[in-house]
């Protein structure tokens, strides 16, 4: 399946915007992705192996955090995975 | 360096005036060109895309672009043969300098973060900051020069008295 890589992480995929990775679930696709492009791993996962909080992952148009099976959701070759870091900020820490 | 067309530059400043007293936000599409200008990496903006601020609970001093909207914008960029090269937002009645919140929430290394100060509803200063570094541990905001490209017809309209002068 195709995985779309955000601009900052393309330094670790040889400049590729889209990479093709085999796998039957989102989790296995990610595992294969970090085998093919090992330098991506610390940018996507914490040392404990959890997806970093600011990294959003979409399976087609769905945030995997809100899918019933989350990372274990089945993935077909025709599906697309998009990695998209969050964007936020503001003038101060006041809430 | 950040290169941007005058019309886009004015449009993102106008966006900040429209949403005042709340923060506006949007995405800069273009190309990252390494070493175009004496070895300086250039983020060349070719289109800006307005985004909604999902922080409706505190829109006067916070902004956030919904990830779903970012996915759509990245898809749009891909269709145009462009990349996401930066983001913009406004600081209502606050300087055009990055805040601790801006820094903590910045994760797009190599991208430009444009901030416009909007005072009493009028856009004042616009500054650009490049998020440099190799990861979360060593990221840093660097001041970034802005080059504004003005089309010849716009330049003539802006300075008609200088037409024909040597």
UniProtKB/TrEMBL annotation, chain A:
Residues spanning the signal sequence: none
Top-level taxon in the UniProt lineage: Bacteria
Protein name (record): Molybdopterin converting factor small subunit
Organismal lineage: Bacteria, Pseudomonadati, Acidobacteriota, Terriglobia, Terriglobales
Species this chain originates from: Tunturiibacter lichenicola
InterPro entries in the record: Beta-grasp_dom_sf (IPR012675), Mopterin_synth/thiamin_S_b (IPR016155), Sulfur_Carrier/Prot_Modifier (IPR052045), ThiS/MoaD-like (IPR003749)
From TrEMBL, chain B:
The organism's place on the tree of life at top rank: Bacteria
Annotated MPN domain residues: 2-135
UniProt keyword Transcription regulation, yes or no: no
GO molecular function, one term: zinc ion binding
Cross-referenced InterPro entries: JAB_dom_prok (IPR028090), JAMM/MPN+_dom (IPR000555), MPN (IPR037518), VirAsm_ModProt (IPR051929)
GO biological process entries: proteolysis
Keywords, sorted A to Z: Hydrolase, Metal-binding, Metalloprotease, Protease, Proteasome, Zinc
One GO term describing the cellular component: proteasome complex
SMART domains: JAB_MPN
Protein name according to UniProt: Proteasome lid subunit RPN8/RPN11
Taxonomic classification: Bacteria, Pseudomonadati, Acidobacteriota, Terriglobia, Terriglobales
């Amino acid at each position: 399946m195709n995985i779309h890589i955000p601009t900052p992480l393309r330094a670790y995929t040889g400049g590729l915007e889209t990479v093709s990775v085999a796998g039957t679930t989102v989790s296995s696709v990610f595992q294969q992705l970090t085998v093919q492009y090992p330098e991506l791993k610390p940018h996507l996962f914490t040392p404990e192996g959890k997806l970093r909080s600011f990294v959003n992952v979409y399976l087609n148009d769905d945030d995997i955090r809100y899918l019933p099976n989350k990372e274990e959701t089945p993935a077909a070759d025709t599906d697309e995975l998009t990695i998209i870091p969050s964007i936020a900020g503001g003038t101060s820490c006041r809430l | 360096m950040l290169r941007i067309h005058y019309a886009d530059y004015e449009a993102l400043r106008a966006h900040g005036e429209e949403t005042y007293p709340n923060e506006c936000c949007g995405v800069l599409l273009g190309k990252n060109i390494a070493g175009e200008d004496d070895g300086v990496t250039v983020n060349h903006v070719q289109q800006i895309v307005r985004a909604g601020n999902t922080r409706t609970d505190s829109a006067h001093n916070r902004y956030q672009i919904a990830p779903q909207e970012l996915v759509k914008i990245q898809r749009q960029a891909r269709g145009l043969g462009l990349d996401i090269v930066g983001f913009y937002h406004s600081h209502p009645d606050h300087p055009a300098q990055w805040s601790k919140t801006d820094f903590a929430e910045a994760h797009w290394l190599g991208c430009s973060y444009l901030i416009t100060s909007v005072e009493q509803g009028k856009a004042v200063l616009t500054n650009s900051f490049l998020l440099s570094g190799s990861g979360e541990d060593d990221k840093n905001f660097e001041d970034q020069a802005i080059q504004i490209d003005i089309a010849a017809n716009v330049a003539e309209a802006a300075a008609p008295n200088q037409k024909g002068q040597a």
